[in-house]
C-alpha cells in the first residue's frame, strides 16, 4: 500500500513535469488520463510551495469531448483554475492526427513528462494495461527480475512469437509499419 504522502508527491511531480514542458499548456493529449482525488492531490500555494487540500470546487467538471464519449476533457475559464498555468488548458483530441504527430506526442510523454515520476520511484510498478512500452527498459520496469524467465516461458509456448500483446515478454521483435499496424519482421524475412 502506498502512503498518502508518496501519492501526493507523485501527483505533484507529474503536474510539475507537465507544466515544465508545456508552459502555455496548449493541449493535453488523449493518452494522458488522470483521476483526480481530492484527498490525495495537494496544490502549490503561497511562498515556499506549501500544500493545501484540493477542494471539489477547484476541480472543473469533466465533460465528454468526442462523439464516442471515451475521451474526456476539462474546460477551465481563465482565472478559475487551481493552478494558473492550467487556466488555458483545453483538451484537444488527436483522433484525426497523423501517426507521426501522435508518436511525437508519445515521445514527449515518455521521455519528458514521465521521466520525473519514474525517477521518483526507481523500483516502481505498473499495471500491464497502463504500461508505456516506449519507455527505456520497459521489460525490467514492468516485470522486474522475472523478465528473463517470462521470455523463456513465452519462447516455449510461442516459439515463433506470433501472439502479440502490448508490453508483454517476447514482443520486442514486433515493429510498427503503418499507422500503428504491427509487423513481425522475423517471420517475413524467413
UniProtKB/TrEMBL annotation:
This is Berberine/berberine-like domain-containing protein. Residues 1-18 form the signal peptide. It comes from Immersiella caudata. Residues 126-165 form the Berberine/berberine-like domain. Keywords: Signal. It comes from the Eukaryota. One of its GO terms (molecular function) is flavin adenine dinucleotide binding. Gene3D superfamilies: 3.30.465.10, 3.40.462.20. Pfam families: BBE.
Amino acid at each position: 500500500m502506498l502512503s498518502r504522502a508518496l501519492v501526493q508527491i507523485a501527483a505533484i511531480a507529474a503536474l510539475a513535469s507537465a507544466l515544465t514542458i508545456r508552459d502555455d499548456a496548449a493541449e493535453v493529449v488523449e493518452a494522458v488520463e488522470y483521476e483526480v482525488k481530492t484527498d490525495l492531490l495537494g496544490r502549490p500555494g503561497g511562498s515556499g510551495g506549501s500544500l493545501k487540500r484540493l477542494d471539489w470546487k477547484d476541480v472543473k467538471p469533466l465533460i465528454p469531448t468526442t462523439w464516442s464519449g471515451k475521451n474526456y476533457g476539462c474546460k477551465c475559464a481563465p482565472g478559475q483554475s487551481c493552478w494558473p498555468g492550467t487556466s488555458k488548458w483545453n483538451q484537444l483530441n488527436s483522433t484525426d492526427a497523423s501517426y507521426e504527430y501522435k508518436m511525437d506526442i508519445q515521445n514527449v510523454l515518455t521521455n519528458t513528462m514521465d521521466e520525473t515520476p519514474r525517477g521518483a520511484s526507481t523500483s516502481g510498478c505498473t499495471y500491464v494495461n497502463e504500461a508505456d512500452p516506449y519507455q527505456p527498459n520497459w521489460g525490467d520496469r514492468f516485470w522486474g527480475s522475472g523478465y528473463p524467465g517470462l521470455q523463456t516461458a513465452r519462447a516455449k509456448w510461442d516459439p515463433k512469437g506470433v501472439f502479440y500483446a502490448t508490453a508483454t515478454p517476447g514482443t520486442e521483435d514486433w515493429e510498427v509499419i503503418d499507422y500503428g499496424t504491427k509487423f513481425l519482421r522475423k517471420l517475413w524475412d524467413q
